[in-house]
Amino acid sequence: MQEQGSQLFKEIGQDLAQALQNGRGFSQTIGTYPFFKKELSLIIEYGEVKSKLGSELEIYAEKTWEAFFTRVNRTMNLVQPLVFIFVALIIVLLYAAMLMPMYQNMEVNF
């Protein structure tokens, strides 16, 4: 898995170097990749114009990181109760499976 990730970075780097040598802009080249968000190319373009690309990318990284963990927390808040309900059902069914033979052997006389 590690080699695949580094191969991807290597290919992106080669494509970026080739595009920059051909005169294409950095933000335009990043915008052609479908796995980058469209706003990344806008952030890069804005950072290049303002000559503050590094700080703009840091701010973007922080916002993206916060959004990612917000989605993770929201998903966990949905999944966690479902897991608890599933575990509770398994426990109840196990108790029922253990107690059913005892209840069947008991005779009730009225």
Automatic annotation (TrEMBL):
One of its GO terms (cellular component) is plasma membrane. It comes from the Bacteria. It is a multi-pass membrane protein. Its main location: membrane. It holds the Pfam family T2SSF. Residues 3-101 form the Type II secretion system protein GspF domain. It is found in: Cell membrane. The chain crosses the membrane at residues 81-103. InterPro entries: GspF/PilC, T2SS_GspF_dom. Keywords: Cell membrane, Membrane, Transmembrane, Transmembrane helix. This is Type IV pilin biogenesis protein. The lineage of its organism: Bacteria, Bacillati, Bacillota, Bacilli, Lactobacillales.
